[in-house]
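Problem 12. The chain below contains 357 residues. Write out its predicted structure in token notation.
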Amino acid sequence: MNKREFIKAGLLAGVASQLPFKSSAAAPSAPKRNHRKNWVWVSPDLKDTDDVLAKRYAKFKEAGITSVFFEADSEKHFRAAKAHGLEAHRWMWTFNRAELVDTHPLWYSKSRNGESCADHPPYVNYYRWLCPSRPEVQEYLEQQVTDILSKDYVDGIHLDYVRYCDVILPVNLWDHYGLDQTRELPAYDFCYCDVCQSNFKDQYGIDVMSLQYPDASLSWRLFRYGNIIRVVNSLSDIAHNKKKWITAAVFPTPEVARRNVRQDWTNFNLDGVCPMIYHGFYKEKVSWIGDAVKEGVHFLAGKFPLYAGLYLSDFQSDDEIRQGIQFALTNGAAGVSFFGDVEKGNTLKILKEEMAG
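Solution.
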């Protein structure tokens, strides 16, 4: 099962609707076509033959795909993609990792009610979130990235789950989980482990457990933004020292990311970012892709390029796919990144036409 099948269950935090970002400044011009990159997320099937891979990646290249995020390490897939002129990047889960539950249970985040992700995962069983405050966690992730980027066939690292657990789910999932999340609930608010509490008190002189409304504490929010930023930027240093790219899949807009998963991605030191602008999860129309891109590009202010993440299952027709690409590019995206099977239907044909237009 693909690790990101969670998307089909709707476990992407956010709200059902939000006001589109408005700016008095003119919308940024779209990057020139020869500066664009278009990406696709792929879970490599080790059963694929050389002939299948050759045809697939030649087709990707012809359509305007420039780069692939591979969810697993398969030298055969990486080298086949590179042989057809594509960049091959390793897609890595970052803070949501289950492999250390038995060996290092103390490394996992604790909710406000004191339950650890190690033995009380929120929402679904695979939600096992590491605590970014712990130096051991940062060192572990740094070693993971170092090992991945040491391989000559890997062009870069792509970080996923670079955030805290969803404190708020989309409103259309509240009934499914029997939740009312009109306020932040302690069981889904992370991290309150001893290390986080101690570090926060050292930094701000505040005992977080003494706060009557910790969800309203701006300092507590800022502290958690900083935890994620620190780790991501340490991983960026590793990538850049190896002369390789580092990108991340993030929540759709800076405002949604900060509010719902404590992720301040505009302060990451990356080479590119792929906001998952999955409009269907937020009950928005296709045009919202343009609003989300505009907000992200505005707050990035040219720091690094934004590639609009499009979830193919959210589109109801070929015309909507075309509109999604157009809304992204005309609002300043440097390209798009697809999640879904781009070989089905006319997605690649549409992309090729938009890149040539």
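Discussion. Confidence is low (pLDDT under 50) at residues 1-34. Students who got a different answer should revisit the alignment rule from Section 12.3.
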